[in-house]
Amino acid sequence: MPTREPAASSFTKGTGSNMASALKAEDLAQFREMLEGLRTRLKGDLDGMTDEALRRNMPESSGNLSNVPLHMADVGTENYDQEFTMSLIENDQDTLGQIHDALGRIADGTYGKCEECGQPIAKPRLQALPYTRHCIECARAMESQG
Ligand SMILES: [Zn+2]
Questions:
Q1: CATH of the domain at 83
Q2: Domain that includes residue 51, residue range
Q3: Is 45 within a domain?
């Protein structure tokens, strides 16, 4: 039984005819500004929070940093506050990473496309969430999957 393989892939993507509603250069410039502003703000927040978290971790009078154990386990009861701050920090770091990636996509021309389905992400969504990688449909689908 001869197996018939398709001679060439009939699935050619990126022929250029279907690239509707690509973002204009001025849109991209605007989003880049938003992302950079966001990044600056988040970095400021992060610096503040990291300072605070570290300072809380230090015995007040000690100026000798080299002997201070930084293990969370030693800190004990003040952990609630600290864990909350730490989770904020992690969250911000995550967002910063996404902002960084988004700026990279602007640089290489793939910004504004859904990573899941390849469709352009609606502009209002990008304006609300400039570092998103997914269109609203895919984002919803992924959320409902947990
Ligand atoms: Zn999508």
A1: 1.20.120.910
A2: 23-59+71-145
A3: yes
Please state the pTM of the whole predicted model.
0.68
**Amino acid letter at 91?**
N
CA of 75 to the centre of ligand 1 (A): 45
Q: Which residues contact 131 (CB under 8 A, 6 or more apart)?
A: 35, 38, 95, 98, 99, 101, 102
Provide the 10 A C-beta neighbour count for residue 114.
19
Residues with CB under 5 A from ligand 1 (ion): 114, 116-117, 135, 138
Give me ligand 1 centre to Cα 69, in Å.
Answer: 46
91 CA to centre of ligand 1 in angstroms: 23
65 part of a folded domain: no
Q: How far is the CA of 145 from the centre of ligand 1 (A)?
A: 15
Count how many domains the chain has.
Answer: 1
Q: Is residue 6 part of a domain?
A: no
Q: What does each of the 146 residues of the chain score in pLDDT, given as a tens digit? A: 656 655 444 444 444 434 445 789 999 999 999 999 999 999 999 999 888 888 877 665 545 555 555 555 555 556 778 888 889 999 999 999 999 999 999 999 999 999 999 999 999 999 999 999 999 999 999 999 86
Is 2 inside any structural domain?
no
